[in-house]
Structure formats: C-alpha cells, structure tokens
C-alpha cells in the first residue's frame, strides 16, 4: 500500500494514512491520524496475499495476524506496558491493528550514543524499571517475549519516557527454535542469550530457559544504556558474535561503572548459566530499583 494521504475507515473511525514507519515479515506499519479525535496512531496492516512479503504464505499471514491480535487483546488489561490497541479489523484480504504511536527506543539509543553521550542515570533507571515490569507481567502469565530488544520498546507519552512493548510475534507459544529466533531478531544476535546458541543447549528443558533468556536480553539493553554499546559489539559481524556465544562458558565481564548497584544487576542478568540469572520479580526487588534515585 503506498504511503501519502490515503484514508481508511475502521469501524466508523476515519484515519489518514501517512508514512510507512516500519515493516516485518507479515506486515507494514504506517503512521496515521485519527481524523475524529486528531490522535496520532500507528496502523499495522497485514495484507494476507501481499507479494512483496514473499517469505510468508497467505495462511501464515492470517495466522500471524490472529495470533498477534489475540495476544495483544488478552494482554491489554494484564500488562500496562504492552502497546495499547485502539481499534482493529479483519477483512477478506487484509487485517488492521490500530495502536498508540511512539518512537522506538532504538532511535533514542542511536541519537544519544551516536553523539558520544550516555543517557542520564535517572533516565536509565526509569526505563529499566519499566522494561523489567513489562517482562514481569508477561512472565507472570506464562509468556516469554523471546525477542526483547530496543526496537521492541516504543516510547509514548508527552515526554516520551513511558515505554510500551510491541511485537509479540514469537512468544513462548511458538517452539523456541534457534534458527527462527535468530532470523526474527532483526539480523543481530546481540540480544540473544548464549543458551539459545549453544549447541549443548538442553532442548528438553527449553521452556524453563525461556524466561531467563528474556532476562539476558534485558541485561544487554541495560548494558547498552549504561555503557553506550552492547557487550558483544566489539566483535563486529554476526558470525563472530554467534561463535563467541556458542563457545561461551563463563559469565560476561562487566566494566567498572559509577553505580555499583547497576553493575551488580548487570552481572546477574548476564550470567552464562540461565538458572543463576534473577527472575523479573527479583529484578523488581533489587536495590538498584528499590533504593530510589538518591542512589544514582
Ligand atoms: N505502535 C508503534 N508506534 C511506532 N512504531 C511502531 C509501532 N508498532 C510498530 N512500529 C514500527 O514498525 C516496526 C515493525 O513492527 P512490528 O515489530 O510489530 O512488526 P513485526 O512483528 O516485525 O512484523 P511481523 O509480525 O509481520 O513480522 C517496528 O520495528 C517499529 O519500528
């Protein structure tokens, strides 16, 4: 669908479609305006037979639409950090999900780190606390996000400091198979836990490992906020990173940081053995979060 001043009506609400702001395996996402209220929204459009999305079949796109929509609607009352769904529709050839719109947290990291700066520590703590809670609410009801990375947190609200999770596309309900996860991780293994790469990974107990894999990914994001780069970034291309993770047997070394509590969280989240990583609930109770901003 071409961008630029197209109008669509969904359940009686008129929208003006503006620019394409993202796309995935099954969908295109547009910025749009709700013409009845003036609210800026994002509309995810899944054209079930779209040829440009060649890797997916029509049926798989239909399934993907329903899976994502079902999960999003289920989570609305259960998790305040999941992107709010404002409207949706399923038609013969196309599905729509209208959501609140924001900017991806990835853009903030690029902007800040690209200019050689770091996020202020109080802001790091504010973002971290929301990320941990977002994952806590998912884990509490048995869902592993499985693709936790800055691209999948959207900043909303007047000052952009409220976070929302998007992209529930590969939750625990799909078999957490290594190759499909790596493909969906936007081409980077930077956030993928070593147990998902390690050839000795015990597939029989993978669901137990799944929760802790989200904790690893959260740790990588905290590391990136704290140090301005990801722990494996220095390794360069993806094959080096995958090889490093595959051979890894020890905990990641964490450089010195002015906040010892933040560093302690990082050490725990980035432990090689998933069983030794904290749960999301434990992270919420960690002194880094409970001791207040005065500690930063
Ligand atoms: N609510 C939103 N506000 C702003 N940008 C968004 C929003 N939702 C999605 N995007 C943008 O669109 C991109 C793709 O969205 P999303 O990750 O949901 O699709 P996907 O899951 O990759 O697609 P698929 O499930 O079809 O593979 C995101 O990376 C983000 O840049």
TrEMBL record:
Alphabetized SMART domains for the sequence: S_TKc
According to the record, the signal peptide region is none
The entry marks the following residues as binding ATP, namely: 44
Q: Which PROSITE patterns match?
A: PROTEIN_KINASE_ATP, PROTEIN_KINASE_DOM
The record places domain Protein kinase at 15-289
| TM spans (from-to) | none
Question: Is Nucleotide-binding there in the keyword field?
Answer: yes
Q: Name one GO biological process term.
A: meiotic spindle assembly checkpoint signaling
UniProt name for this protein? Protein kinase domain-containing protein
Q: Which organism is it from?
A: Didymodactylos carnosus
């Amino acid at each position: 669908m071409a961008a630029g001043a197209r109008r669509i009506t969904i359940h009686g609400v008129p929208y003006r479609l503006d620019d394409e702001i993202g796309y995935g395996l099954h969908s295109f996402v547009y910025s749009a305006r709700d013409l009845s209220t003036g609210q800026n929204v994002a509309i995810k459009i899944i054209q079930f037979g779209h040829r440009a999305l060649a890797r997916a079949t029509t049926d798989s796109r239909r399934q993907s639409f329903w899976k994502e929509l079902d999960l999003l609607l289920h989570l609305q009352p259960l998790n305040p950090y999941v992107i709010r769904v404002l409207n949706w529709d399923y038609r013969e050839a196309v599905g729509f999900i209208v959501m609140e719109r924001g900017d991806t947290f990835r853009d903030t990291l690029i902007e800040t780190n690209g200019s050689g700066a770091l996020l202020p520590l109080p802001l790091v703590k504010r973002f971290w606390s929301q990320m941990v809670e977002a994952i806590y609410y998912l884990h509490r009801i048995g869902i592993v996000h499985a693709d936790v990375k800055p691209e999948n947190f959207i900043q909303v609200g007047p000052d952009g400091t409220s976070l929302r999770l998007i992209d529930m596309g590969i939750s625990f309900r799909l078999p957490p198979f290594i190759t499909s996860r790596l493909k969906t991780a936007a081409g980077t293994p930077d956030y993928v836990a070593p147990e998902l790469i390690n050839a000795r990974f015990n597939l029989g107990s993978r669901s137990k490992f799944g929760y802790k894999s989200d904790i690893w990914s959260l740790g990588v994001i905290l590391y990136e906020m704290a140090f301005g780069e990801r722990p494996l970034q220095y390794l360069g291309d993806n094959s080096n990173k995958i090889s490093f993770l595959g051979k890894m047997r020890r905990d990641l070394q964490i450089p010195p940081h002015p906040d010892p509590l933040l560093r302690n969280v990082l050490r725990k989240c980035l432990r090689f053995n998933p069983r030794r990583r904290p749960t999301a609930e434990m992270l919420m109770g960690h002194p880094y979060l409970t001791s207040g901003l005065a500690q930063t």
